[in-house]
Amino acid sequence: MSKRIADWTKGEGAITYQACTSCGHVQYFHRAFCAACGASDPPEARASGKGRVYATSLVCRAATPETRAHVPYNILLVDCAEGFRMMAHGDNGLAIGDSVVASFKPFAGTLVPYFAKEK
């Protein structure tokens, strides 16, 4: 098994994905196999952090006491430049179709990807 690249899930300011060398399938969230063809141990790479907003939802009620300080906050689905879709936080003014770029911000005690409009 290849060595995992540290990303935001491990406190590093990066987004990683896997690209299968057998079939070319791109997947987000690490798996020990390709979800398309079953090939084992697809290699990981760091994403550019660029993408386009696919969907957006403004959260106006805190789900937990830890998230209360962040309300209202925007949850996005972002189609990333590398070909995968991910859920992340983002600026409240973002709309479907906006070109965005990721940074990383603390949210309820955890570092999370945070997208803003690309300038």
Set out the fold topology.
Layout lengths: L15 E4 L6 E3 L15 E3 L3 E10 L13 E8 L4 E6 L8 E9 L2 E8 L2
Parallel strand pairs: 6-8
Antiparallel strand pairs: 1-2, 1-3, 4-5, 4-7, 5-6, 7-8
InterPro entries: ChsH2_C (IPR002878), ChsH2_Znr (IPR022002), NA-bd_OB-fold (IPR012340), Thioester_dehydratase-like (IPR052513)
Organism: Bradyrhizobium huanghuaihaiense
Protein name: Putative OB-fold protein
Question: How would you summarize this macromolecular structure in one to three sentences?
Answer:
By secondary structure, this protein is mostly beta strands. The protein has strands at residues 16-19, 26-28, 44-46, 50-59, 73-80, 85-90, 99-107, 110-117.
**Any low-confidence stretches, pLDDT <50, length ≥5?**
none
Instruction: Give the strand order, joined by hyphens, for the main sheet.
Output: 4-5-6-8-7
Oligomer: single chain
Judged by helices, strands and strand pairing, the structural class is mainly beta
In CATH's first tier, which class of the domain at 50-117 applies? Mainly Beta
- Helical content band: under 10%
Mean pLDDT: 94
Kindly identify the CATH topology of the domain at 50-117: OB fold (Dihydrolipoamide Acetyltransferase, E2P)
What is the terminal-to-terminal distance? 39 Å
Number of helices: 0
Report the sheet with the most strands, covering strand number, pairing sense and barrel closure. 5 strands, mixed, barrel
User: How large is the share of residues in beta strands?
Assistant: 35-45%
CATH-defined architecture of the domain at 50-117? Beta Barrel
Global morphology: globular
